[in-house]
Amino acid sequence: MAKHRFRDVKQGKVTKDKGMKKSKKDTIPYASSKIKIKAFLTDSFMIFMPIFYFIIYIIFDNLKNAGEHKLEAWSYALVAYFIIQTIFMLKDKGRTPGLRSQNLKVIDKYTKQKPSLFSIVFRNLTSILSLLTIFGWVMMFFRKDNQTLHDLLSATAVVPDNEAK
Q1: What does the pLDDT look like over 69-120, one tens digit per residue?
Q2: Is 113 exposed, middle or buried, given 0-12, 13-18 or 19+ CB atoms closer than 10 A?
Q3: In this structure, are residues 123 and 106 in contact, taking their beta carbons and an 8 Å threshold?
Q4: pLDDT 10s digits, 2-58
Q5: DSSP labels, 118-159
Q6: Please, what is the angle between helix 70-91 and helix 117-133, to 10°?
Q7: How many domains does the chain have?
Q8: Does any domain span residue 15?
């Protein structure tokens, strides 16, 4: 059967399927790793650090008490960071303050629109996992599309936000 199809294609009776090739319109303009790192650091200092200081000095009273309960303090901080980051992404078209400062946004790879609530929650949970294992963040330096593990798992992409300019 395969021989017949090959002959038909070779003789020009059947044309090759052009739908298999990706057109340039379908490609996603992924953000560079340098800009993504800047956005991450901005989010760390604008969202995570105030939360962490609040937990250390308001909830645990001082650094010594927080040091005695490190796992609990970090758990509180990461849960609060996760919630606040999810709220930002839901309310601000897939952007956090760090992404907004670098004119970036998170989109769903398939719809190229703002991700669903499930995708955002899953992405933020796996980003904490990526951060704890380091591998998830380091892999963006070895990929052409600069995607991290949590972007791959949640089928999202960080792209330049052309509307913000």
Answers
A1: 999 999 999 999 999 999 999 998 889 999 999 999 999 999 989 999 999 9
A2: exposed
A3: yes
A4: 455 666 666 666 555 544 455 455 588 999 999 999 999 999 999 999 999 999 999
A5: HHHHHHHHHHHHHHHHSHHHHGGGSSTT---HHHHHHTEEEE
A6: 140
A7: 1
A8: no
Question: In the chain, at which residue ranges do the beta strands (DSSP E only) sit?
Answer: 104-108, 156-160
Residue 103 lies in a domain: yes
Query: Does residue 3 fall inside a structural domain?
Result: no
Please enumerate in sequence order all residues whose Cβ is within 8 A of that of 77, keeping only pairs 6 or more positions apart, or say none. 48, 51, 52, 55
Q: How far apart are CA 157 and CA 107, in angstroms?
A: 5
* DSSP label at residue 108: E
The residue range of the domain holding 107 is 30-164
pLDDT of residue 16: 54
Which residue matches tokens 């200092």?
A: 45
Residue 89 Cα distances to 93, 112, 117, 118, 123, angstroms? 6, 15, 9, 12, 11
pLDDT for 25 equals: 53
Quick check: is 2 in a domain? no
